């Protein structure tokens, strides 16, 4: 496998959670079944197969799993991250000790299935948005500890990452507004404190809040759980004075109806928290493993 900068970086970011995943799977005693049943010196070949069409994501992570649990196992990528795999196609090949392959199997597949599911769903949504010019975005609704990986998968599917956390973007939400006594106060304080370091985004749940956000000088207005007629009116109110983002209540069935309303972006939490896992399996090539 040819390593790229992105591969190295995502594998580095994944190492901590990979170690946790391996620890919870292997515990103190390791794979007691394989130890009890299989010859200690057995070697094997294996393939990882996609049982359905998908966009592959997580190959550097799976490779890192085996590098940590069984360095003697080679992991060769057949279908790279961001590439499409056909149903029944091989996406990776492994060669090494049987014990090493089986020790890393479930952890590697858990990452690959989950991340490929996110990338595949994202690609579907991006394709639906088509030529509308709308940016399909994720949110902070991610699995704890998995944010960097899940947002990586979104980018592989053609989506755009919203802020990574509370540290790299400003979104003034209803609780901020309630805490300081008003939307305009919150926007003014953010502007004075941050001095242009970040665009100021405001969450608006009503058309009245949209007007107030525009008047306050917000850079981005997030329309929270508005139906298409309300979004259309909000876009008319904003009239190009700020970027408009839609969030809440949007899915594959109605994405295009929102994308056609002149908004700039649509953010969807379910891209990361509810994407169905891709059906992948690891299959031993027993005839070449020395076990027969």
Structural overview:
The chain has 292 residues and is α/β, with parallel strands linked by helices. The chain has 2 domains: 5-125 and 276-288, Aldehyde Oxidoreductase, domain 3 (Alpha-Beta Complex), CATH 3.90.1170; 131-273, Aldolase class I (TIM Barrel, Alpha-Beta Barrel). Helices cover 45% and strands 18% of the residues. It has helices spanning 5-26, 32-37, 59-69, 98-129, 147-156, 174-180, 183-194, 207-216, 228-238, 255-259, 270-273; strands at residues 43-50, 54-55, 74-77, 84-85, 89-97, 135-137, 170-172, 200-204, 220-224, 243-247, 265-267, 280-284. β8, α8 (207-216) and β9 form a beta-alpha-beta unit. The longest helix has 32 residues, at 98-129.
In terms of topology, how is this protein built?
Blueprint (H helix, E strand, L loop, with lengths): L4 H22 L5 H6 L5 E8 L3 E2 L3 H11 L4 E4 L6 E2 L3 E9 H32 L5 E3 L9 H10 L13 E3 L1 H7 L2 H12 L5 E5 L2 H10 L3 E5 L3 H11 L4 E5 L7 H5 L5 E3 L2 H4 L6 E5 L8
Parallel strand pairs: 6-11, 7-8, 8-9, 9-10, 10-11
Antiparallel strand pairs: 1-5, 1-12, 2-4, 3-5
**Helix/strand class:** alpha/beta
CATH superfamily of the largest domain: Aldolase class I
Q: How many β-strand stretches?
A: 12
Q: What is the CA-CA span between the terminal residues?
A: 30 Å
Question: Taking strands numbered 1, 2, ... along the chain, how are they ordered across the largest sheet?
Answer: 6-11-10-9-8-7
Helical content (DSSP H or I, runs of 4+): 40-55%
Oligomer: single chain
Measured by DSSP, the beta-strand proportion falls in 15-25%
Report Rg.
23 Å
CATH topology of the largest domain: TIM Barrel
């Amino acid at each position: 496998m040819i390593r790229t900068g992105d591969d190295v970086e995502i594998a580095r970011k994944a190492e901590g959670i990979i170690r946790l995943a391996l620890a919870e799977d292997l515990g103190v005693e390791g794979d007691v079944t394989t130890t009890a049943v299989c010859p200690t010196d057995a070697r094997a070949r294996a393939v990882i197969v996609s049982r359905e069409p998908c966009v592959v994501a997580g190959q550097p992570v799976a490779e890192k799993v085996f590098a940590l649990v069984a360095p003697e196992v080679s992991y060769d990528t057949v279908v790279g991250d961001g590439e499409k795999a056909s149903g029944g196609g091989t996406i990776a090949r492994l060669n090494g000790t049987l014990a090493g392959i089986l020790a890393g199997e479930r952890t590697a597949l858990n990452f690959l299935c989950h991340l490929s599911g996110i990338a595949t769903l994202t690609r579907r949504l991006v394709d639906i948005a088509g030529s509308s010019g709308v940016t399909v975005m994720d949110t902070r609704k991610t699995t704890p500890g998995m944010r960097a990986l899940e947002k990586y998968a979104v980018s592989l599917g053609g989506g755009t990452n919203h802020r990574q956390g509370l540290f790299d973007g400003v979104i003034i939400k209803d609780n901020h507004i309630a805490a300081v006594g008003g939307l305009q106060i919150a926007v003014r304080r953010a502007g004075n404190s941050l001095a242009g370091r970040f665009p100021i985004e405001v969450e608006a749940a009503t058309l009245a809040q949209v007007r107030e956000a525009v008047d306050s000088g917000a850079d981005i207005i997030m329309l929270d759980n508005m139906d298409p007629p309300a979004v259309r009116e909000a876009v008319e109110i904003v009239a190009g004075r700020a970027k408009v983002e839609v969030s809440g209540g949007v899915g594959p069935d109605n994405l295009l109806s929102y994308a056609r309303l002149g908004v700039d972006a649509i953010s969807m939490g379910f891209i990361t928290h509810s994407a169905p896992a891709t059906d992948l399996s690891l299959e031993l090539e027993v005839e070449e493993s020395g076990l027969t």
